Amino acid sequence: MKTELRKTLGFYSCFSVAVGLVVASSTLVSLGQGMGLAGGGFVFAMATAWILQLCSAQSYAELACMMPHAGGLRSYTKVAMGALPAMAAVILAYVIPNLVAAPAELAVAGAVITETFTPAIPPVVWGGLLLAVLTITNVIGVDIFAKLQIIFTLTMMGSMALLGIIGLTGIGTLPPPVLPEQPFNPMGMGVFGLTALAIWLYIGIEFVTPMAQETKQPGKNIPKAMFYGLLAIFCVNLLYGYASLKFVPGEELANSNHPHVDMALAMLGKPGMIWIAIVSIFASASTINTIIGVVPRMLYGMAVSRELPAVFRSIHPRFHTPWIGILFMAGAMSLFFFGGIHKAPNLIVYILAACCSWLFAYIIAHLNVIILRRRYPNYKRPYKVPFYPIPQILGSLGMGYAIVNIAPVPEMESTIFRLVGFMVAGTLVYVVVWLRFVVKQPMFIPMDMQEAQEEWGLVEKELYKNGIPATFIINPGCGPNCLADTQAAATSNE
Fold it and tell me: Sign (positive/negative) of CA torsion 319, 322, 210, 459?
């Protein structure tokens, strides 16, 4: 029985998913702090990060269109490098960073709610309550954000663009404060050290690529959606960032955990603060919901492939959700959140640690393209990266530079690298022990292309059997109709 999904997604659907998975409150924190540190010169870091992410998008697009039925980065890397790099890439890119980034989102949401609406209630209460509600709704299978994901995304992007235009033109704003004069680029060439901070503005754009199986003309629509998605994000952030510099002192932006709210308050007063606060809260909730809903399904797929303990294959008998994985993610996020992130004086440290961990996966994706071009030169590729291998070499070197220069200021360097060291060391220890002593599989012997396709086919069947469409693993925008579409496609192909 085949469980192929119908090709129903066009350019605009792919564009919405690509942008929707990137826009979050934590990106606005990195934008505000970057503008505060580098002034208008932050645009150079933003442009550099944009080019690097475009290179990453190109590599992911080729891999996804080449293996549209495979399990994303994990399967590409298994075929290119073997099991150890494959498992490490997925854990470092999509599991561990979200255990840090999601609590940072909770902290932003809690702080915004407290400052805007309920000064008497501590932010930690709101953050914990939001996590509890989203955990429960995901366990019982009620995705309250799936159908509204695109609306939230467009509202967030539209609000930022409109506020940016209002701020830059001065139409309807409060009189801008008299701010100390600041040079356009006070950091000089040092601004390129903020590239990693700027990459967080675009991180996750590749999440649209595993939807190649559902996309019409994936070789055209997926790379096009990522290109225009990156372009839209760049333009909107530029408008909002420069407007922020007009109304908020750079030092205040650099030290704030919610600079986007500070900007709206300074520009439009309380109404502006409420406006961006509401949008920011829903953006945070949608992002956290995505993490709680999607990562456990990744864990489920890895457990089916014997890359994680079998307990992660547990499906709730009533709600048909991977509830063990959901509770695991929620519990781990709680440890980080209540363990210190909620009271951190500077959330950007945790955001950058998550970003650094993610960057390793981008380098692996570039290497995958180079290796697979050599191993399978004649394999069908609906999309081929233009000017190969320049984007792969440039992207790998650029990501390496961003990792080495991850800290925007020297005071943060030791903390960030300590966090990243724990992430990388913990991941490698787990993967080596699991492959060497538990499943006893070779670590660096690449899997044959056909074998990888067959393995993911088995995962898809298991997902379908338990009422979880394979697309749920990587597509949080997939609503209740996904299962019906999967079942209908499966029935018609039996």
Answer: negative
**Residue 198: both structure tokens together:** 């700027």
Nearest in space to 133 (alpha carbons), one of 238, 5, 289, 26: 289
The whole-angstrom separation of Cα 487 and Cα 1 is 11
How far apart CA 237 and CA 241 sit, in angstroms, is: 6
Tokens describing residue 125: 């209460």
* Residue corresponding to tokens 């220069």: 405
Cα of 387 vs its chain's centroid, Å? 27
The span from the CA of 337 to the CA of 351, in Å, is: 13
Say which residues have a Cβ less than 8 Å from residue 84's Cβ, sequence separation at least 6.
431, 432, 435, 443, 444
Q: What would the two tokens of residue 76 be?
A: 């590409």
Question: Could you count the other beta carbons within 10 Å of the beta carbon of residue 480?
Answer: 11
Could you tell me if 322 and 300 are in contact, meaning their C-beta atoms sit under 8 angstroms apart?
Answer: yes
φ, ψ of residue 215 to 5 degrees: the values are -100, 135
For each of the chain's 494 residues, which pLDDT tens digit applies? 444 445 667 888 788 777 876 777 888 889 999 999 999 999 999 999 999 999 999 999 999 888 876 567 888 899 999 999 999 998 988 888 888 888 988 998 999 999 999 999 999 999 999 999 999 988 887 666 666 667 777 888 889 999 999 999 988 888 888 888 888 999 999 999 999 999 999 988 887 776 777 778 888 888 999 999 999 999 999 999 999 999 999 999 998 888 999 999 999 999 999 999 998 888 888 788 878 877 887 788 788 888 899 999 888 888 878 899 999 999 999 998 998 777 777 788 888 999 999 999 999 999 999 999 999 999 989 999 999 999 999 999 999 999 999 988 888 899 999 999 999 999 999 999 999 999 999 999 998 887 777 777 666 666 666 655 544 444 433 333 343 333 333 333 33
What does the alpha-carbon distance between residue 241 and residue 251 come to, in Å, rounded to a whole number? 14
